[in-house]
Write a structure and sequence with these properties.
The protein is built from 1 helix and no strands. The chain is mainly α and 73 residues long. The mean pLDDT is 84.
């Protein structure tokens, strides 16, 4: 009878460990999804930053060329 009780306690303990592992895996999967979303957002923001960096450069060249061709002073 004691062997059965010890076996039963061991099975219950292992089931609890399995449930904790399932919960932790679910948390990690959620974190992985969040990381993937954040990576996409970072890539999008990098693209926008690149566009913003390029626009002023083109704008400066146009303005500089315009002033050189038609000086105000």
């Amino acid at each position: 009878m004691r062997d059965y009780e010890a076996f039963k306690a061991e099975v219950i303990e292992k089931a609890e460990v399995i449930e904790k592992l399932k919960t932790r895996i679910a948390e990690l999967v959620d974190q992985d999804r969040l990381i993937a979303e954040l990576r996409c957002e970072v890539a999008e923001l990098k693209g926008q930053l690149t566009q913003l960096r390029r626009y002023p450069a083109r704008h400066d060249r146009i303005v500089t060329a315009g002033f050189a061709a038609n000086p105000i002073f």
